[in-house]
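Researcher: I've got a protein sequence and the SMILES for magnesium ion. Could you write out the 3D structure of the bound complex as structure tokens? I'd like something to compare against our soaking experiments later this week.
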Amino acid sequence: MIEAWDDLIAGVKQGSVRSLARMISAVENRVAGWMEAMKLIHLDRKTAKVIGITGPPGSGKSTLTDKITSELVQEGLSIGIIAVDPSSPYSGGALLGDRLRMRDVSILPGVFVRSMATRGALGGLTWAAHDVVKILSASGKDVILIETVGVGQDEIEIVRTADLVMLVCVPGQGDAIQAIKAGVMEIADLFVVNKADLNGADRVVADIEAMLDLSSSSDCGRPPVFKTVATQSTGTRDLVAMVHSMLARRSDERSRREVRVKELLVSLLATEVARLVHEKWNRDGSLALAVEDVLRSRKDPYSIVQEVLAPVASHLK
Ligand SMILES: Nc1nc2c(ncn2[C@@H]2O[C@H](COP(=O)(O)OP(=O)(O)OP(=O)(O)O)[C@@H](O)[C@H]2O)c(=O)[nH]1
Ligand SMILES: [Mg+2]
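Model: Sure. Here is the predicted complex with magnesium ion in place.
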């Protein structure tokens, strides 16, 4: 197994697309040895710039991601795209559409597209997404774009640690600003009012500006607001230019990295503890016993969890 991992890692570092895809799957599926493999990946000091693209369902995030990718590819950069599929009812049939559209850019040189499902990610999506970011970085990607629907907490967590977060809004959703979940506004470094070909785009821009007037400016300055028509690539070149200049003059790089490392540690720890307990429970049948105990009112779930964690808890005291 370890040999196979060595081959995979070597392939990833040489930029092999096949190794990249296989390594990501193997890590996602927690194939034995994944942690050792990730340690080796971590030794690699390459760090891609990570851009989070979030916003309401259907606002044009994928279309925009494609256009930004094309621009960056023209600049000679290699790009990784992580599309977090909302495996929820929010955007219904959009999933397949996403994949089909994404294929357009995935044939461009140096572009690697990976979809991740919100549900079913072993050990937490935030962590899984960061593993993928790390692997893509090691493979030599210059920029990684992460597209998530800004609805669930998981999705927000994922983009929160990006180097730059882009929030995509659209006209015609009633009060577009209200439609965006509280908590997402605060993490946006840059606002994009997409579908500017539709009525009401200027109104949305004005609403965002008004909102920014009210909020205290952060140390990295007031987030710019851009209008785009992603389907026609209108405004996307200026947007990319702004992204470059913002990434270049970020003053809070160190504090962002601190937040990211902290989140990763907490998330890895939580998922690993859960995984270890799960494994033990399933291995020795104690999960079935615990369920039976609760059902027969012999024990309550809280006591059971306390008992299971007692050795860890006492160790930490
Ligand atoms: N009129 C107009 N339509 C657009 C524009 N950008 C995207 N669209 C259309 O809006 C629809 C949704 O676009 P997507 O890029 O899939 O949006 P999304 O935010 O990725 O959607 P989900 O991933 O499902 O949340 C598609 O039919 C696009 O063609 C735009 O600037 N103007
Ligand atoms: Mg999409």
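Model: Residues 307 and 314 are 11 Å apart (CA to CA). The first helix runs from residue 2 to 13.
Researcher: Great, I'll pass this along to the crystallography team.
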